[in-house]
Amino acid sequence: MADTLTITDNRTGKQYDVPIAEGTIRAMDLRQIKASPDDFGLMTYDPAFQNTASCRSSITFIDGDKGILEYRGYPIDQLAEHSTYLETAALILNGELPNTAELDAWSREITLHTMLHENIKKFMEGFQYDAHPMGIFLSTVGALSTIYPDAKDITNAETRRLQISRLIAKVPSIAAYAFRHSIGRPYVYPDNDLSFTGNFLNMLFKMTELKYRPHPVLERALDVLFILHADHEQNCSTSAMRSIGSSQADPYASLAGAAAALYGPLHGGANEAVLHMLKEIGSVANVPAFIARVKGGDGRLMGFGHRVYKSYDPRARIIKQTADLVFDVTGRNPLTDIALELERIALEDEYFVSRKLYPNVDFYSGLIYQAMGFPLDMFPVLFAIPRTAGWLAQWDEMLRDADQKIARPRQIYIGAARRDYVPRATRG
Ligand code: SDX
User: Which residue has its alpha carbon closest to ligand 1 atom 35?
Assistant: First the structure.
């Protein structure tokens, strides 16, 4: 049997053999199917790209039915147990786990790029004290494109590598500055003696002590959360990164757009929305009434459901385990009981089971962030920091992919037919 699809166009009786490769057919192969010689040819109609592969990628593999997530072939649970965020970022970017010398050099490279141009302080002062940190984050990332004009040379691999290092190193500094701005505290400079995540905690929480010492359990827990959030194939924000980058915009402008997509409550803003939901429910006793409202179509169970996972998000399982380690240090987040009851009921309820709605990465992460002292509006920023590695790896892969060109989908036009201009005096 040949790897082809034979299509019969019943409008003309013609048959077409279309090659099947890697589980797909090329949409452009449908354009030959015409009802008449001047016909444009067939397109596919796929709103939200629910059944469309936009690229071929070797970075992340997900099997949504089996709850499998692998970065460059390595299972996420093994990376969460044995790796660090910086090592995982190197894996995602380069395709292989670094050896000791490579990891030391990579860590040093990142450490030396954590400082922000002093003008960023003035830029941040323009935001109101209660500006949402994600608005500050995406604006500041975009503003960095004005500080590094060399980043426009996106065809130069060395230049791309330099921008990748700058962005991975600077997004925690931007996030920390946004947090300190929102609580009226002075900015904290990086401490090169600390790990990537330890320094992030330093820039967030250092007060008058001479040397900030991160709590090792919290430092490790946050690093694991960063590993879990580092990439997730063609999600909404990564698709935005690829689409913007396909116009050859610089990586700062592209990443600002990706962060903007992540900000939405259906995507990276869900971790913040989950905590608002748990606070709105208020007690375990109120969970059944809330579930009933959701089933009646009034709102969604935030932190549940996924376009790809139709089983338990493997990241949610690891985050749930990590929460217990954090709570041993910080004290248990009282909202946890409400979350556990929501999960217990939802996993038994036909409404959620029939729709294959399970906890996703955002359902438990916010409980940890809140217990660690982060305000709710910092949660999407905590997602954006590690996803920066994935966005940049996908951007770099797109630029090196000979199949890719500027992204420009088609449409089905359903508007008015051609009509002549009507003088204002004669309009009804
Ligand atoms: C992330 O893509 C990624 O990989 C994203 C991400 C990543 O790492 O990049 O994994 C991170 O964004 C995780 C998702 C975080 N978002 C949320 O938790 C928000 C709540 N979840 C949803 O809104 C929803 O589940 C989505 C957006 C995640 C997925 O939506 P889909 O695939 O478009 O599904 P849908 O909206 O078409 O829903 C299918 C059905 C509908 O019911 P019916 O119309 O068939 O009656 O399921 C229902 C929906 O109403 N449904 C929900 C629900 N999610 C879907 N009902 C209640 N609560 C929910 N959470």
Answer: 307
Return the pLDDT at 428.
Answer: 86
Which of 9, 77, 117, 267 is labelled catalytic?
A: 267
Q: Which of 49, 241, 277, 306 is the best mutation target for the ligand 1 pocket, counting ligand atoms within 8 Å of the beta carbon and taking the most? A: 306
Model confidence pLDDT, tens digit, residues 256-293? 999 999 999 999 999 999 999 999 999 999 999 999 99
Q: Which of 223, 313, 362, 396 is catalytic?
A: 362
Rounded to two decimals, the pTM is 0.96
Which pair of structure tokens corresponds to residue 87?
A: 């090592």
Distance CA 273, CA 140 (A): 23
- Which atom of ligand 1 lies at the shortest distance from residue 236's CA? 2
Nearest CA to ligand 1 atom 1: 267
In this structure, which residue's CA is closest to atom 4 in ligand 1?
A: 235
* Tokens 């009646």, located at residue: 296
CA distances from 426 to 1, 417, 418, 419 (A): 66, 20, 19, 15
Q: What is the mean pLDDT of residues 226-253?
A: 98
Residue 247 CA, distance from chain mean position: 20
Q: pLDDT tens, 5-52?
A: 999 999 999 999 999 999 999 999 999 999 999 999 999 999 999 999
CB of 264 closer than 8 Å to CB of 236: yes
